[in-house]
Amino acid sequence: MIRVQQEDFDAGVELEALRSRLQGTAGAVVSFIGLVRNLNEGDAITGMTLEHYPGMTEKALVEIASEASSRWNLIDAIIIHRVGPMSPNDGIVFVAAASAHRKEAFLACEYMITTLKTEAPFWKKETTSRGTRWVSQTCPESPDKPAEQSNN
Amino acid sequence: MVQLRYFASLRERLGIGEETVSLPVHVNTVAGLQLWLQERGTLWAETLADQRLLVAVNHEISERNASVSDGDEIAWLPPVTGG
User: Which chain B residues have a beta carbon less than 8 Å from that of A81?
Assistant: First the structure.
């Protein structure tokens, strides 16, 4: 299940809804929440705006969740990403993976957030005391790293 | 006609988010389209020369030799920074 939305998400509500969908089929759920930090590159951040490419972004998220589901045999996968204006400490993204055993859920969750950060069309613009600036891509981690680990 | 879209920092630098243009007869690839747009002037020439930019044709990330034709939506994307 993927969603791109302006409004905040409630991780507890999402996890509880997931748990009731699972009906006892999963032994593990691993989730990740990305938050707006109040500091970036040495500057205090007072706000952030997320832009996306409607249509293409949703398609990219579906592909990432599908790839994770098939690689790690997931029972369920969730990606919720917010767009629009946000404040420090707000949730930006929620990712969850449910599988029979914990290893697959951990690997799939890491794969989804890491791949999303390098492949899904989202752009962050942050507000500092000196004005606004587009966040530049810094040291992207390899999205294939979790996949390699799964072969060990 | 094709739909062209520019996102985030690119949109701000170029001062335009989307436009509809008629492809000249000699333009049939992403690279050709880019060269044609770069003839608009220094701003376009320099901005689109950034090697980090990605191009999506109909919502799929595409190589510069991908073909473009009437009805396509072609988007220029700065490096992504979500998550």
Answer: 82-83
Q: pTM value?
A: 0.91
Cβ-nearest to B83 among A51, A116, A134:
A116
Q: Which residues contact A23 (CB under 8 A, 6 or more apart)?
A: none
The SS3 call for residue B41 is coil
The letter for the amino acid at A83 is: V
Q: How confident is the model at residue A41 (pLDDT cuts 50, 70, 90)?
A: confident
- Cβ separation A34–B5 shorter than 8 A: no
Interchain CB distance below 8 Å, A124 and B59:
no
Which tokens belong to A114? 């890491």
Supply A38's token pair.
């109040």
Residue of A4, A2, A7 whose CA lies nearest to A86: A7
DSSP state, residue B34: H
Residue A91, pLDDT score: 97
What is the maximum span of chain A, computed from C-alpha positions, in angstroms? 52
List the single best residue of A5, A33, A64, A134 to mutate versus B (max B Cβ within 10 A). A134
Chain B contact for A112 (CB, 8 A cutoff): no
Neighbours of A6 (CB within 10 A): 10
Summary mean pLDDT of chain A: 92
Distances (CA, A) of B33 to A62, A128, B54: 29, 37, 14
